[in-house]
Design goal:
235 residues, eight-stranded parallel β-barrel
């Protein structure tokens, strides 16, 4: 299982790299669970990240606006992101989700076919009216994405495992693998959750709060020692 860490700026990215993160995920928590950062920040972080590490960028907790989001995906890809991650927040059903993600995939793959597109749903979708989380693997498969992901939409201390059982998550992982997709799981993941997610075959685990001082994703800063501690558990 590989570790994705979400810095907000260059200094945090350096801490994530020093701690051994496998994927450097550029995001902006001020704009939501999967809040988008600025293109110049993606570029700056890509420039200081070793070539053998991948850089991810979130496009935000997005509305159902395929043209707008495809344009955002193009910007992230051109700015240096290897992974393009879309939070299906304002998408209400399977058909809208597939249409949106097909256009994102086309936008990204037209730039570079090796770039990776992630369809991200929310384990607590019922709290925000987003698309049902357990159909995310089918959405990813049918739109040509590379990765299906679950996160949490509302960051109030409740984790992924407060909304989905280990058994349901294992089914989610297995379905992703059946479709030839990678599976990423995130959502206020804590140290004690890492062995559980590893045991069910998760490919990528995403964290921010767990590697910030004080466990605070908004006001804390990423610390390399906390990153290393989680990285060791992922091995």
């Amino acid at each position: 299982m590989i570790l994705l860490v979400s810095p907000i700026d260059v200094e945090e990215a350096k801490e994530a790299i020093a701690g051994g993160a496998d994927i450097i995920d550029v995001k902006n928590p001020k704009e939501g669970s999967l809040g988008a950062n600025f293109p110049w920040m993606i570029k700056a972080i890509r420039e200081i990240t070793p070539k053998d590490l991948l850089v991810s960028a979130t496009l935000g907790d997005v509305p159902y606006k395929p043209g707008t989001i495809s344009l955002a995906a193009t910007g992230a890809a051109i700015s240096g992101a290897d992974y393009i991650k879309v939070g299906l927040y304002g998408v209400k059903n399977y058909y809208q989700a597939v249409n949106l993600m097909k256009n994102v995939v086309k936008a990204v793959k037209d730039i570079n076919d090796s770039k990776i597109v992630v369809a991200a749903g929310y384990a607590d979708a019922h709290r925000v009216g987003a698309v049902e989380p357990l159909i995310i693997p089918k959405i990813a498969r049918d739109s040509g994405c590379d990765v299906a992901m679950l996160d949490t939409a509302i960051k109030d201390g409740k984790s992924l495992l407060d909304f989905q059982t280990k058994e349901i998550l294992e089914e989610f992982v297995d379905e992703c693998h059946e479709y030839g997709l990678k599976c990423a799981l995130a959502g206020s993941i804590k140290k004690e959750h890492i062995p559980i997610l590893k045991s069910i075959g998760t490919d990528i685990v995403g964290v921010r709060g767990a590697v910030c001082k004080g466990g605070d994703r908004n006001n804390g800063r990423i610390d390399r020692n906390l990153v290393k501690e989680l990285k060791d558990l992922c091995k």
